[in-house]
Amino acid sequence: CQPVPKPESRVEVCDLNPCPPRWKVTPAGPCSSSCGLGLALQLVTCVQILHGQEVLQEEHLCPVAEKPLTSVPCVIRTCSYEWSFSEWSECSTSCGNGIQTRQDFCLSSLTHKPVNPLFCRHFPKAVVVRGCSAGPCPEQEGTESPGAELQPVTAATLLTTAAAATQHRHKELYVPLAAGPPEQTKPSGGEEDMAKRSFLCVCGNLFLNASGIINMTGVESRDCTVAIGRPLREEISVTILESSLNCTAGEVLLFSGRMMWRTGCRKLPLSLINSRTNTLIVKQRVVLPGNGVILQYSSRIAAKKYYQECDQQLFGPQGEIVNPVQLPEERQEVVCRTFITVAPRQRISIRALNADLGPEGNQTYFNYILVRDVSTMKTVVFHGKQPFLWQSTGSQAEIEFHE
């Protein structure tokens, strides 16, 4: 290019579109426990680069589905604990059948002193109540009363009873919204009681249809909670058709999901609430009898994908979870999750039948199962090969399988 005159060097200012807001995570702080499982808090903020400077933004501007956890599990060293028990008490009766009880303590194997029972929650615990017999009572000598023996109540019995009750309740999940005032004819006797029970049984139920109407007016309980569930690829929208809530008296309606939390009382009729995910819990608190709301809900394919291909959704009352999940092209680098939602009046138990997360002495802790109690947002981490039993405080749980 030497024969050609060289142009002067020029610098032009360019203004590209600003980068979208993103999540910023500060390094985690100290572990909350000196041994065993603890939590380390980390600050998660939404920031955006503007004119070369990092500017703090409101959280809703960042992708909610990608928000990192504000607390991460941490383990400094392994703790060792075990259950210990007091002596059995005297039989509760002087004759006939009674019960004996004993207290349980969680002991540290290092200090042999009682510690918080939460440290022993993963270890199997022996029974603390048992039957006893103090001999026949004077008036019962020579005779045996049928059914006098103590019958053990097992967890399987309770689960079977709960499942039967759930199946019965699901027959009357939906309360129809009448198009106009009812005719003056009234049902008689048992029919009127049946209609009243059908009207009031909406609280504590899980609705799984694609659409429907939920009438929460006139319920007897102060707090009435319902849940709506759909497949993972869908999202739920709710419209309040009618509301008779008394805001001055403190009556309120609360909507909660994995990506949203909203309360309201005034200007509720015809307002639209979007869950942005496949589950939504609606809780109504009333003070004055007869008040409440009537909801209409529907579902559709979600506008944004908020789940991984290996994620799964369970709605109960029971199921089996197997991990790892076979993915296309054998990709296993993502964290697979299982979401569990049951009726609001029910609770969740997760039992590991078989767990192999590597050797117990593995100090890297890359392989673990994280269980989150959605109602309290508390997480528990399980390592190694020890089977475990976990129980929820609410009706929703999430499981993450790492590595």
UniProtKB/TrEMBL annotation:
A GO molecular-function annotation: metalloendopeptidase activity
Pfam families in the record: TSP1_ADAMTS (PF19030)
Organism for this UniProt entry: Rhabdornis inornatus
Subcellular location: Secreted
Alphabetized UniProt keyword annotations: Repeat, Secreted, Signal
GO BP terms: extracellular matrix organization; proteolysis
Gene Ontology cellular component terms for the protein in this record: extracellular matrix; extracellular region
Principal subcellular localisation of the protein: secreted
InterPro entries to which the protein is assigned, alphabetical: ADAMTS_ADAMTS-like (IPR050439), Sperma_CUB_dom_sf (IPR035914), TSP1_rpt (IPR000884), TSP1_rpt_sf (IPR036383)
Name of the protein: ATS13 metalloproteinase
